[in-house]
């Protein structure tokens, strides 16, 4: 899974969010490593929607939020994909930690 896909799913796993909010949270979550410019952000959201991992919401916007903002939600298949990728990454980190340990001198 592409790192920015993973981060978007992680953001949406916590709460429904609009595009610019997703971009802000991904940047914060990645320590500034991932910046989602509008073309990349909305192209990626379209790809995730095509995968069935997120959906666009037609809903009443919270007080103080622009009616022009589109909100997105993670779907059940999106949560399963996020869980599977999280397990894959955890296994990779586990392997890396084992291999990086100093070997006993012989």
Q: Helices, strands, pairings?
A:
Layout: H1 3-14, E1 17-18, H2 19-29, H3 38-51, E2 54-57, E3 71-74, H4 76-100
Antiparallel strand pairs: 1-3, 2-3
CATH homologous superfamily placement? Winged helix-like DNA-binding domain superfamily/Winged helix DNA-binding domain
- The helical percent reads 55-70%
Strand tally: 3
According to CATH, what is the topology?
Answer: Arc Repressor Mutant, subunit A
Find the structural class using helix and strand composition: mainly alpha
Q: What order do the helices and strands follow?
A: HEHHEEH
Instruction: Catalogue the unreliable spans.
Output: none
Biggest sheet descriptor:
3 strands, antiparallel
Describe what you observe in this structure.
58% of the residues lie in helices and 9% in strands. The protein has 106 residues and is mainly alpha-helical. The protein has a three-stranded antiparallel beta sheet with strand order 1-3-2. Helix 1 crosses helix 2 (19-29) and helix 1 (3-14) packs across helix 4. The chain is elongated and about 70 Å long. The chain starts with a helix and ends in a 6-residue tail after the last helix. The model has no long low-confidence stretch (mean pLDDT 91).
Question: Short summary of the structure?
Answer:
With 106 residues, the chain is mostly helical. The protein contains four helices and three strands.
Descriptive labels:
three-stranded antiparallel beta sheet, 4 helices, 3 strands, Arc Repressor Mutant, subunit A, mainly alpha
């Amino acid at each position: 899974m592409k790192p920015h896909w993973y981060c978007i799913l992680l953001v949406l796993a916590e709460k429904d969010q609009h595009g610019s909010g997703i971009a802000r949270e991904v940047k914060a979550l990645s320590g500034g490593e991932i910046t989602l410019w509008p073309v990349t952000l909305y192209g990626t959201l379209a790809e995730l929607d095509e995968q069935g991992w997120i959906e666009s919401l037609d809903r009443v916007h919270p007080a103080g939020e622009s009616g022009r903002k589109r909100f997105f939600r993670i779907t059940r298949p999106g949560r399963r994909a996020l869980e599977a990728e999280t397990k894959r990454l955890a296994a990779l980190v586990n392997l890396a930690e084992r291999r990086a340990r100093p070997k006993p001198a012989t």
